[in-house]
Amino acid sequence: MTIARVEFSSEQLAEVRRLQGLYPDTRGALLPVLHMAQDTFGYVSLEVEAYVAGLFGLSPAHVHEVVTFYTLYFQQPKGRHVVAVCHNLSCHLAGAQDILRHLEARLGVQRGETTEDGRVTLQAVECLCACEAAPMMQVDDRYEMNLTPDKCDRILRDLR
Amino acid sequence: MPRLTIDGKEIEVEAGTNLIEAARRLGIEVPHYCYHPGLSIAGQCRLCMVDIEKTPRPSIACNTPAADGMVVHTQTERVKDMRRSMMEFHLINHPLDCPVCDQAGECWLQIYYMQHGLYDPRMLDEKVHKPKAVPLGPHVMLDAERCILCSRCVRFCDEITGTGELGIFGRGDHSEIGLFPGQDLENNYSGNVVDICPVGALTDRDFRFRVRVWYLDTTKSICPGCARGCNVEVHVNRKRPHHAEGRRVARLKPRFNDAVNAWWICDVGRYGFDAVDDPSRIRFARRGDAEVELDEALNALLDALRRHTPAEIAILASPDLANEDLFALRRLTETLGIRQVAFGVPPAAPTPAADDFLLRADRHPNTRGAETILPAGDAAAILAAARAGRVKVLWVFQHDLLAAGWSAAETRQALERVDTLVFSGTNDNATSALATLVLPLAAWVERDGTFTNFLGRVQRFRAAVEPLGEALAAWDLLGRLLGPLGVPPAGARAELWFRELATTVSAFAGLTYQSIGDGGAMLAGAPPTTAPEPPGRRAPAPA
User: Among candidates B299, B319, B350, B315, which has minimal Cα distance to B453?
Assistant: First the structure.
């Protein structure tokens, strides 16, 4: 995805100021503003980091520290859908590695990569707090639980 | 003011003093990596744990202010055990490449490891590998594997320079120090991050692999790079000259002085000592193109000074000369009645600029001293007189007049018009090439003396190495001329010249080498100074 111009709209800038006003130190608003930026520009490029740094009067290096610390900020363009498979202990014991290998084969990408058509980004992630339904994964904003290869295929089919 | 007990010794400290500083005053060192008195508290390394009576667990000393009645123990078994464990954490991914690391010998990982006697690593997993030998800018090299993530360099760039180039990226055992991609560590204070790095993660590209630090000798000195007069240590490699291909001065390090530069020096000063061991150094006196004995050259100069009337003689002194030199020169000009004396020569374009912290636009260490000791003179008028043929003997100290902010053609005319052009300086330049008589001067690291900084602070520098060839301090050279002219020289040591200066020039009254000490002393009437506020602390955060 290419972005013509890294710049928030005036409504978004008002929202940035509102968020900054919620914290004793405006830096507290950095995380929500970075999420806003990710939603707006698709992912958090270095250019986006520098732009956001400017909104906070921070050094770009400081914003880069935050972006590289958290896994939910994408530093590369991501697919239209994000499939995040848990491979922590419970899911691992319940066959998460088989699920991951199945998804890798179906999508033709390795974990951490995005399909060429930009449809799906596949990730292996740590515990998502649904051990009772292991193995599980998060597809965009919803949990898919008690996975089997067949169930995965059905889920992938619905992702456009 | 809180009164507390540390390891059985009582001390009273100012409110707000932390336990590391309070202990330091008692001569007790609390081990630490991330704490630095010039930076904010990070509490990152967890090494400075101390036991405080009536608190259940050890606390970090850096972030604990001294309180009245506090009883602190820095050496309990529990605390030592914790430090040992912290050291073990710090060393988990450390590459242990001390044999090829410049920091070896002054590395706090080595020092604390030895102190805490932890000898066998228990880790079975492979170490995490990170980038090595990454140039961060013109002066600093990063080895991310050696880094213990104390964040001193990050805080330095945030709080001192205010430039914010560095950060800690990633997390967990993949965290590493780095630059925002595409940026360079290119601010004028970048060398300081090497000084404050407690381990070998940041090393100096200029000093790298030149010499082992335990072969270095240390001398207290003053940076001659500008009118600030930052306090420095000169580190000299005398024991292993073959390690550095004849480069005697290995590096300059800042020396703490709260009144001048605090803990810092700029890169212009830090890397500005090349001239000392440069092939352009003047080692022996010259007459025309021939090297001659110093005495022969001095006699020739005496002869020229005696043969001409004072009105035919002009002297261009230098604001690079020490107070002692300038005073000896003043003695000479007074003895001979020479009125045409000046020292200020305009710099060539582009004129050097001051930076926003320590570096001054005036790149001479002793302009204030020259102003105080010598009568006010006009260098341009002297050159004009020379061009008009009214100057027969022109004696130039140190300056390259052909590289000054004057028309080089006109200056050349002036220099070629005089009968005897005398040059005394440390290094050859275009002006010395035209001189009929050249006298070698000792560089600032080769002699004792004092400079007066722009605020009137008189500060001592000391000889770290022997002068090259027959080079002499200017006061010594001038003293050897004064004797035959019937004026007893003040003595054979810079200190004796200073003593005479202090009794003659009222601004220096009462000052002695002893009262100047290591920290300097103010000229009479000059208000006391403090180090300037760092730009990183000055700038209010933009809204």
Answer: B319
Contact A123, A103 (CB under 8 A): no
* pLDDT band at residue B79 using 50, 70 and 90 as cut-offs: very high
| Same domain as A100, residue A130 | yes
Cβ–Cβ below 8 Å for B180 and A69: no
Number of structural domains (chain A) is 2
Q: Are both A88 and A61 inside the same structural domain?
A: no
Interface of A with B in 58-77 (CB under 8 A): 58-62, 64-65, 68-69
The domains located in chain B, with CATH, are 3-91 (3.10.20.740), 98-204 (3.30.70.20), 286-522 (3.40.50.740)
Token readout for B14 is 């100012």
Total Cβ atoms within 10 A of residue B494: 26
- Mutation choice for B interface testing from A30, A64, A72 by most B CBs within 10 A: A64
- Distances in Å between the alpha carbon of B248 and those of B218, B236, B251, B500? 12, 6, 9, 32
Clarify whether residues A154 and A85 are in a common domain: yes
The encoded tokens of residue B297 equal 């050259």
Regarding whether A98 and A58 lie in a shared domain, the answer is: no
Read off the pLDDT of residues B134-177 as tens digits, 9 standing for 90 and up: 999 999 999 999 999 999 999 999 999 999 999 999 999 999 99
Does one domain contain both A38 and A94?
Answer: no
- For residues B464 and B446, is the Cβ–Cβ distance under 8 A? yes
Q: Is residue A101 part of a domain?
A: yes
Distance CA B212, CA B216 (A): 7
Taking the C-alpha atoms of residue B165 and residue B151, their distance in angstroms, rounded to an integer, is 12
Domain membership flag for residue A2: no
Residue of B nearest to A60 (CA): B180
Same domain, A63 and A121: no
Confidence band (pLDDT; 50, 70, 90) for B317? very high
Residues A92 and A65 grouped into a single domain:
no
- Nearest residue of chain B to residue A45 (CA atoms): B181
pTM over 0.90: yes
CB burial of B511-528 (b: ≥16 within 10 Å; e: otherwise) equals bebeebeeebbbbeebee
Using alpha carbons, select from B141, B165, B147, B140 the residue that is nearest to residue B155.
B165
Chain A / chain B CB contacts < 8 angstroms: 45
Q: Is the CB of residue B489 less than 8 Å from the CB of residue B483?
A: yes
Residues A105 and A50 in one domain: no
| Helices and strands, number each (H, E), in chain B | 16, 23
CATH number at residue A57: 1.10.10
Tokens matching residue B101: 């690391």
With respect to residue A74, please indicate whether it lies within any of the assigned structural domains: no
ipTM: 0.85
CATH number of the domain that residue A94 is part of: 3.40.30.10
What's the average model confidence in pLDDT over A49-75? 95
The set of residues, in sequence order, having a beta carbon less than 8 Å from that of B427 and lying 6+ positions away, is B275, B278, B280, B281, B282
Residue A59 lies in a domain: yes
Distance CA B403, CA B31 (A): 51
Contact (CB, 8 A) for B285 and B440: yes
Task: Quote the CA–CA distance of A54 and B464 in Å, as a whole number.
Answer: 48
Contacts of B165 in chain A (CB under 8 A): 59, 61
Q: Which domain holds residue A61?
A: 10-69
